[in-house]
Amino acid sequence: MRNFTSVNDLALLSGENTGDAIDALVQKALAHKANPFGRKELGTNKRIGCLFLNPSMRTRLSTQIAAQNLGMEAIVFNVGSEGWALEFEEEAIMSGTTVEHIKDAAPVFGKYFDILAIRTFPSLKNREDDYSELYIKQFIRYAGTPVLSLESATLHPLQSLTDIITITELMQQSGRDNDRDKKPKIVMTWAPHVKPLPQCVANSFAQWINAWGRADFVITHPEDYELSEAFTNGATITHNQEEALKDADFVYVKNWSTFHDYGKIYESDPKWMLTNKKLEGTRDAKVMHCLPVRRNVELSDEVLDGPNSIVTQEAGNRVWAAQAVLEELLQSNG
Ligand code: CP
Asked: Per residue in 154-183, pLDDT tens?
C-alpha cells in the first residue's frame, strides 16, 4: 500500500477482496490495542509529518500516539495557521495571497519525512473542485513519499476504519462475529446541525460499510440530502427515519450538508435528532458519532450520557486504526 486516502487503497493489499482486507486490517488494529508497543522497532528512526490545514483534536492526537507507539517521531505542523499560504493550482500566476506552490513545498516535506499525513477540508463552495480532491492529490503527486489522509475534501478513511473496528469489537463481545448469516443492521442517520458540514464522514462510512459487505446497511435522511451514489451505492436509502431505525444494531449519527445543491442547509428540523424514544424501535442499538458533536442538536444528552452510546470507545479506537495503517505503510514502503 503506497498511500492511504480511501478504502480503495486496501484493494492493493495481498490480492484479497476488500471485505477480507478490511477484516485483516481490523484484526491488526485490535492486536495493537492488546499490545500497543509490540511493533516499536518498525518505526525506529522514521519520522511522520502531520500537516493540518484545518482544526482537529482526535485525528491529530491519535495519529501522534499511534506513530509514537510504533517508534516513530511525529511532528505536527499547522500549515493552515502557521505555514506559508499554499497554492495548489497548476500554472497559477501567484500574484494573490498564496506564497508558495505545492510543487515547491511538497518535495521539501518529502525530504523531511518518511510519511506525510495531511488534513484538509472542502470549501463547500464548488462541488467539482472539492470532489476533485486537488489538495491531497497534489501532495501525492509532488511529495515523493507515502501520503496518509487525516480527512480530505470528500473522505475520512481513518474514521471509517475506526468505526468498523468498533463495530467488530462489539460484535465479538456479543459473540455475533462468527455468524455471517446474522449480519448486523447498521443505520446511518442524518442529524440536524447549525452550519453546513462536509459530506466526508458520511461518504466515507458508506463507502467502507459497502466495501466491507458484512452488514445490512440503511441510510436515512430528509429529502434533498442525497449523498453521492459513488459512495452510497449498495445501501438502502429512505427518508423515513422511524422505519430505518427498526431493529437496528448500530446507529451512526452524522450531519452533512446538501450534495446536489452543493453545501447548503435546507433544514435543521429538531425532529431528526436522535433520542432515547427513537431507540425503542431498535435492537438496543449502540449509538456512534465521530465527534465533535453538538449536544441536544444532533444527539440528545440522554443518548450521549446513556448506556447505548459508544462514542468514547469509538474515539479511543482512532489510535489503533492509525497504528494499523501506519504499520501497513511502513511495511510496504520500507
Ligand atoms: N472525528 C474527528 O476527525 O475528530 P477531530 O476533528 O477532532 O480530529
From this structure: 999 999 999 999 999 999 988 777 665 679
Tens of pLDDT along 27-38?
999 999 999 999
Q: Are 255 and 196 in contact (CB under 8 A)?
A: no
- Report how far ligand 1's centroid is from the alpha carbon of 151 (Å): 9
Q: CB within 8 A of 89, min separation 6: which ones? A: 134
Q: What is the value of pTM for the model shown?
A: 0.97
Give the ligand 1 atom nearest the CA of 315: 1
Residue 14 pLDDT = 57
* DSSP class per residue in 95-148: -SS--EEHHHHHHHHHHH-SEEEEE----SS-HHHHHTTHHHHHHHHHH-S-EE
Domains and CATH numbers, the chain: 7-155+318-333 (3.40.50.1370), 159-316 (3.40.50.1370)
Bridging pattern class, strands 147-149 and 73-77:
unpaired
Q: Is 329 exposed, middle or buried (0-12, 13-18, 19+ CB in 10 A)?
A: buried
Of all atoms in ligand 1, which is nearest to the CA of residue 55?
6
Pocket of ligand 1 (CB under 6 A): 56-59, 151, 159, 290-291
d(CA 144, CA 7): 21
CA of 290 to the centre of ligand 1 (A): 7
Amino acid at 265: I
Inter-CA distances, 114 with 110, 304, 330, Å: 7, 39, 9
Structure confidence by residue, pLDDT tens digits, 253-308: 999 999 999 999 987 788 999 999 999 999 999 999 999 999 999 999 999 999 99
Report the distance separating Cα 142 and Cα 134, nearest Å.
Answer: 12
CB-based contact 150:158 (threshold 8 Å): yes
Going from the Cα of 159 to the center of ligand 1, the distance in angstroms, rounded, reads 8
- How far apart are the CA of 140 and the centre of ligand 1, in A? 22
